[in-house]
Amino acid sequence: MCTLVLPQALRGLAGGAKELDLDGATLADVLDALAAEHPVLARRIRDDQGQVRRFVNLYVDGSDVRHCGGLEAAVAPQSEVLVLPSVAGG
Amino acid sequence: MTDVLLAIGTMKGLFLARSTDRSGWELSELKFPMNAVYAVAIDTRRDDPRMFVSATSEHWGPSVFHSDDLGKSWVEPDKTAISFPADTEQSLERVWQIAPSQAEPDVVWAGSEPQGLFRSTDRGEHFEFVRPLFDHPHRPDWGAGYGGAAIHTVLPHPTDAQRITVAMSTGGVYRSEDAGASWSASNTGVQVIFAPDQYPEFGQCVHKVARDPVDPDRMFMQNHNGVYRSDDDGHTWNSIADPLPTDFGFAMVTHPRRSEVAYNFPIIDGGDRVPPDHACRVFRTEDAGASWTPLTNGLPQDDYYDIVLRDAMCTDDADPAGVYFGTRGGQVFASADEGENWAQLAEHLPGVLCVRAAVVG
Fold it and tell me: I need a surface site. Which of A7, B194, B261, B282 has the fewest CB within 10 A?
């Protein structure tokens, strides 16, 4: 079971939790598990087509998933999946 | 005593203003910080009003919330309130319009970017995608205005649930007479200035359409260059721009009860987006567009360069009617006497995207 680490802005949608333990062999699996438990929170990360939102960055064990498989990035039982907002806005 | 609620959607969140005399206003703290609020609605069809807010975070995407306690607390349903089905290959960017239907007690319509229409039968908690409009053969040729490719206006007929009018930038006006099962472009007489064919079947950049409160077949339109009126439920449109100082602008609002009364905030042109004469003036017609009167009492008349966006003007339902508008520069002005006199309600807000007002007590 991996650990999903949430930014401050999203913790309120997980009952205040900083981290969530989720099952999944890929990032997509993990986010599907998140959607089953916390559907509103999951929508903050992925759009209607299941794609990671443009200004949301996801890291699996420190690697930006955009450069290592995207939603198919492998996730190990002890992995840390970090959610961070990118630099955006004005 | 009349308790009026004014919802002010801005580029960086929502403000609520309350007043019992429409002279002194209490402005709330910022709600939904860092969310652009493109649409608000106050559904007063029941004794217990329900508010809606469309909030879009640059990071976390779009959401629609509702409140049954006049904005003290907000609910976002677990199931996606508004979303595009997977086979459309589209994702919701933002909701531009939330429109309760007067003809059907629990029906709420919503228009979105990209161009999509959604219908709720449970008072706005869950929405269904209106597929026939998305499947319209014109859709591949609909475009995006500067603000985005959006259905920004949804006008359900007040007594006939079969008839719905929508407007989009760009694309124009489309109408259904079978509750959304089929749709027809309805832009006869509406000019485009940005294409060789100036009177196409569709493709117009409509900025706003408002319906007359007494004669629902009469509608007023602010187009991208052009101000029009329809007297036949949108089948045909005729220019009413001549008495106005310019034919460009975004906002168009009708009176809550008086027929033939509409409000407009002219802008010089698409290439010169400041008010004519650099004066802050609302124009009102009381004869369905045959004449327009500038309303200036209490509004800044010198060196004024701010403008009003398409949903940033509204009326309330009090008597006499209140009129409100917010500007891109973050000012909000209010009139408690149908536009005769104005006072500044707020300043230094983020840019105002939308306002809606209603008597709530």
Answer: B194
